[in-house]
Write a structure and sequence with these properties.
binds NADP nicotinamide-adenine-dinucleotide phosphate, 11 strands, globular, alpha/beta, 283 residues, 10 helices, 3-stranded parallel β-sheet, 6-stranded parallel β-sheet
Length: 283
């Protein structure tokens, strides 16, 4: 194996330590800790685990967290009402509505109703617009984590060829915007891209976020490329990324593993966004 494995757990730990320090400073200046409100509708076991992990992570860095659990049959209006109340609550700095929500609720309407200043997932149209315009705002956690990994690895982005596979609002589009903001030359691929491997092979930096296990193999990697695999796919053989790690590692210069690459960064950046939201609201 030629490639260096990028250790997402270690980078996430350094982000958490930085946030913990910021939280202590915030608390001594403001007399209270930053606070995150989470909202879970229904009893999906995976969502319960995700929300539980977020609360534990908050606790570890000193962020106060409050959980709101609503029944699976909660109406859209009831959820919108809670989101509105949390928006007005002066003690709440960040609001996270765990997705997916039950089918009677339109997730886009709920996200759009969040106070953009407390939108720690960075998903509201306001924050997406700020990102599109290259203006400061709250950036979605996983894309922010991708950029933090690249920064930590010292990857030169200015003028680099970057290829992003996937164009979701959650990952692909914001990653591409951030790479463009860092002056990379960005190409976006999706399910209708004609020759995916050939396009990916142009990349000095390849970010895979398609949700297809091991979609990209050695033929998709330019020798020496840096590969960031966002894919998290449950298969009969365990958790797999969108990249065939073993094959790609023979060609790339650095690559994230799955698990242990991008995954740990997402919660770390949520903590960082909550501190950022608290600071901006207090300013
Ligand atoms: P998504 O909303 O399903 O979007 C997938 C994107 O990939 C779409 O734009 C789709 O193209 C494209 N795509 C699908 N199949 C493709 C193919 N064969 N060739 C090229 N492009 C293809 O997924 P997402 O929410 O962005 O998530 C992507 C992956 O990242 C998933 O595995 C997810 O579990 C993982 N993820 C991980 C984290 C983390 O913390 N590590 C966080 C979020 C997501 P079209 O637009 O044309 O349909």
């Amino acid at each position: 194996m030629a490639a260096r494995t990028i250790d997402g757990k270690a980078v996430a730990a350094s982000v958490r330590a930085r946030v913990a320090e910021g939280v202590r400073a915030f608390e001594s200046e403001r007399g209270r800790a930053p606070a995150l409100a989470t909202v879970l509708v229904g009893d999906d076991p995976a969502s319960q685990v995700y929300v539980g992990n977020k609360h534990r992570a908050c606790e570890e860095v000193g962020i106060h967290s409050v959980h709101h659990e609503l029944a699976a049959e909660t109406s859209e209006n009831e959820l919108l009402e809670l989101v509105g109340e949390l928006g007005l609550d002066r003690e709440v700095d960040g609001i996270l509505v765990q997705l997916p929500v039950p089918k009677q609720i339109d997730p886009d309407r709920v996200v759009a109703a969040l106070d953009p200043a407390k939108d720690v997932d960075g998903l509201t149209p306001v924050n997406a617009g700020l990102l599109a315009h290259g203006m400061p705002g709250l950036v979605p956690c996983t894309p922010a984590g991708v950029m933090e990994l690249l920064r930590h690895e010292g990857v030169e982005l200015e003028g680099a060829e970057a290829v992003v596979v996937g164009r979701s609002k959650l990952v692909g589009v914001p990653v591409a915007r951030l790479l463009l903001g860092a002056n990379a030359t960005v190409t976006m691929c999706h399910s209708r891209t004609r020759d995916l491997d050939a396009t990916c092979r142009r990349a000095d930096v390849l970010v895979a976020a398609a949700g297809v296990p091991e979609l990209l193999g050695a033929d998709a990697i330019k020798p020496g490329a840096v590969v960031i695999d966002v894919g998290t796919n449950r298969t009969d053989d365990g958790l797999k990324g969108d990249v065939d790690f073993a094959a790609a590692a023979e060609v790339a210069s650095a690559i994230t593993p799955v698990p242990g690459g991008v995954g740990p960064m997402t919660i770390a950046m949520l903590l960082s966004n909550t501190l950022q939201a608290a600071r901006s609201r207090a300013a």
